[in-house]
Structure prediction request, 91 residues.
Amino acid sequence: MAHHKIPQVLGRLETTLSALIREYLFVSLFKSCTESLATENARSLSAMQRAEKNISELLDTLHHKYHRLRQSSIDEELFDVVSGFEALKNK
Prediction:
């Protein structure tokens, strides 16, 4: 059910217009601030996600290096044991 009545202003027109303009400016400024904050938060989130990915990749690289060094150390010890055994066996 639609009404075709024109809105009417109670009180002085200048006072109402001034209040509407103030409210419009407030809403516009508030909207700009929230959009700016949302953009800043999105950039921060993106930077943190990139940092997290870089940390994860670095951890993977360090784990691989550690395991390679560990395996190399184990191999050296085994070669020493085998060499010692061969030396004792030949005597």
Summary: The radius of gyration is 37 Å. The chain has one helix and no strands. The mean pLDDT is 93. Helices lie at 13-90.
